[in-house]
């Protein structure tokens, strides 16, 4: 069991990159971290989000959240953007190669390439504050270019979250299991009865029935109740 800080980049007055048709990076990554959180927790991991709504958060706040919580891993979700709208592909940024962060980034890269059929733009090193000052393996995931019109139209934030969650679980030697929550089947019967309460006094029950009739409830009536059921008193 590991502690994961999932960081949805941007937010609030910082929408991040915006596609030609108005999709915002901040919205995509927030939905993605929620999906990743759901899957990680379902598989026994512990998750903390740096932001859980469309709010603004500076880099220092994100770092402090992770460090103060003593997280095991920090994953920051982003989309990429470029002036050339034909560019596409995914890349991951870490502070230094030869580390646990690079190991995690390789799992994430493999998932992105396999599921997005994305161009591999590599694992890159950078001295970003959020990577340099976090006290645990930290990665920045740049999943595709929102500046690419086709990507903006078809990119699934839910799938993004799924891919990262699967990679994170592989990092801790787990296989993602996502068992859907099934609704109980409704038994087949001719009809159903609604019981409103138990009354020791007939007049009290009748008064309650009159009130219900005035409130529009039709088809209700008073019936005798066996003595042994007195434990169900109203």
TrEMBL record:
- InterPro entries given in the database record: MurNAc-LAA_cat, N-acetylmuramoyl_amidase_3
Q: Which residues form a coiled coil?
A: none
- Asked if the Swiss-Prot or TrEMBL record annotates the protein with the keyword Secreted, the reply is no
Q: Which GO terms describe its molecular function?
A: N-acetylmuramoyl-L-alanine amidase activity
Keyword line: Hydrolase
Matches recorded under Pfam families: Amidase_3 (PF01520)
One GO cellular component term: outer membrane-bounded periplasmic space
Q: Which residues form the MurNAc-LAA domain?
A: 63-173
**Is Protein biosynthesis included in the keywords of this UniProt record?**
no
SUPFAM superfamilies given for it? Zn-dependent exopeptidases (SSF53187)
Q: Which SMART domains match?
A: Ami_3
Q: Tell me the GO BP annotations in alphabetical order.
A: peptidoglycan catabolic process
Per its UniProt record, what PANTHER family does this chain match?
N-ACETYLMURAMOYL-L-ALANINE AMIDASE, N-ACETYLMURAMOYL-L-ALANINE AMIDASE AMIC
Q: What is the official name of this protein in its record?
A: MurNAc-LAA domain-containing protein
